[in-house]
Amino acid sequence: MISTLQLSDLVLNALETSDTSEQNALTQLTSGRRVNSDSDDPAAAAQEVNISSQMNDCDQYLRSITSLTSELQTADSSLNSVVTALQQAISLGTEGANGTLSQQNCTTIAQQIKGIAQQVFSVANLSYNGTYVFGGTETTKPPYVLDNSVAGGVSYQGNDDVNSVEVAQGESVAVNQPGSQLFSSPAANVFVALDNLTTALESNSSTDDIGDAVTQLRSAYDQLTSARTFYGSTVDQIVGTQVFLDSESLQLASQQNSTVGIDMDVAVTDLTNAEESRAATVQAASSLNGTSLMDYLANMER
Amino acid sequence: MGGLTGSMWIALNALQAQQVGMETSANNVANLNTPGYSREVPVLQEADPFVQGNLVVGGGVEVEGIQSLRDSLLDLQISEETQQQGNSQAFVNAMNQVQTLFPDDTTGIGQQISAFFQSLNSLSTDPSDTTLRQGVLTAAQNMATAFNDTAGQLTDIRQQLDSQVQQQVQQVNQITQQIAGINAQLTNVGSSTQEYGAFLDQRSALIQQLSGLIDVSQLSDGPSLTLTTKQGTALVVGGQSYALSTALGTDGVQHIYSSQDQDITGEISGGQLGGTLAARDQTIPSLQTQLDSLAGGMVTALNYAQSQGTDMYGNSGKDLSNLFEPITGTGAAADMALAISDPNLIAASSDVDPSQGSNGNLANFSAVANADVSNGMTPSGAYGNLVFQVGTAVSNQSSELGASNAMLTQLTQQQSSVSGVSLDQEASSLLLYQQAYQASAQVITTINQMLETVLNMGAGS
Hints:
Strand order of the largest sheet of chain B: 5-6-7-8
Number of strands of chain A: 8
Structural class of chain A: mainly alpha
Oligomer: heterodimer
CATH class of the largest domain in chain A: Mainly Alpha
Number of helices of chain A: 8
Structural class of chain B: alpha+beta
Number of domains of chain B: 2
Number of helices of chain B: 10
Distance between the termini of chain B: 29 Å
Order of helices and strands of chain A: HHHEEEEEEHEEHHHH
Largest sheet of chain A: 2 strands, antiparallel
Helix content of chain B: 55-70%
Shape of chain B: rod-shaped
């Protein structure tokens, strides 16, 4: 025999069940996530910790790359201006060495080369965001200072060290070239070469001496241009890494979506089902009322 | 006895019997919505026949008693399942709070660990920049705060559970006392009375409540009912109840003692008390230990990384400050704190000569992200593992809870079909009793007329 309470319990239970599924579906739809607490899918939640940490890492790498790229490009274009200036110095020196110029003209050329030396000196002390770019890892003081006690009149107070920055998981790149590689390598010092050329031109030396000074400058120029390629190739490398990270980010986002994201079709179907089942239960419950034999008894007595 | 007066007697008894039937039906209808009420039926039987000369004549009907319809096996099953349900429910309630402390995405410890390592990467692009250095300290502070908060809230939740244990023990004692009281009453009333059934109904409802609180074993029935925990600690023996007590243990939480002062904390496995104790004494302490191990492991590894470098002032080796206050073991997560507030004290440089722009040592810091810091796991791996454990604990018990709920619904339906009141049934019973009553009354009227006839026999002459 089915008791009267049993029927109302059945209705209540059915309503509760459909309410719970409706609530679940709604939570999923509003949050856009299938996993709204760890217990919804513990394995997916743990995976999500990992994925979201990797996504954050990717974003950080991309930010670092943006800031590095701009620093490296600034260094590269500044060095480009030095290259141009040195080319000009070499052609001026070559002119001085062919012996056809008057002393007056030689002195003028020497003045021009001094100007170039000043330009190189200022680029060698380039600072970016308050840190000196060409001092190795000694970035808080100017790498080059005027110093008449040394050859060339300029001494290097930076170091030979290189910083590396991680730009992707397991991928580090060197981010600076010390001035001792670019401007003041012992074998090919730009400042010494420029100073020697100036002296040779000013002191009315033989064309051979001027020629030697030009040769010296040319080798310093070669050293600079070869060391400078570091900047271009590093920029190329990290731009490549950037492209990789962009696609990695997309990949991770899609992985995240498939791990904890909502399956729209399923959630909408769940919601519709829950709503329909609720409506059906209410319908059935309303038709339950007034059907007991007691009502018949009451009617009979009238 | 015989003759007309005998028949009159039979009819009167019949009237009474039908009246009792009407009364039980009325009582059933009245208790339609009473929780724990079992449907009652009058137990009618033939009265002893009487002998009239050579004849044996039926003695009519008599009411032997009123019986409550219940299935004690179902009651037992419901009690068992209620223990399981109470256990799961209490555990899930407790761990649902814990679960919010271990989010898997944009907040919490995992996020702060990740942000800390990102701040190090930022610093590596410009290691002498004060803003970036300050960024590392801020991120480190946020990470420490996240550990502090989570550890603090775990402790809070554990304390809440501790006071719940006390309340639940009090409830258990109240209920066992009531059950013992009912047992005593049952001894005083006869087993065939309506009161007896009513007391059984009350007791059965109380046993169900008790099962929701603690694991219960039920021995014998009737007035001598004995209730113990699953491990045999007496709760009720007949009319006597045995109260449990609580007292603060050396481990800082309430322990539960039997009436014989035995510590039974570890024995309780069912009901809300079982679930609360499981969360308080097993799951949460295990999470605390792992959280401490993660915090201690990170502090040790990061301090070691710090010790390998040179700070902005040129300090290296033993002249360096720790990054975090050195802590390990119990309480590490709660006590995690920065040891420095000057960003220049971060030993980012790997150059021994005090060059301030080197980032060589930051790689040692960053390497901690991929190092074994806690039980063979990386920081993010260890946190992920915590998320997994909390999630699994809640999810397993939620499934158990779902199963228990379904089972209980099923059992309650079954019980309801045995003991529940059906208005249809009562209506038809009422009709039957009514008709039998009317018929008996008619018999009395007829006998009355016959008696008058007999009395008037002499008067007419």
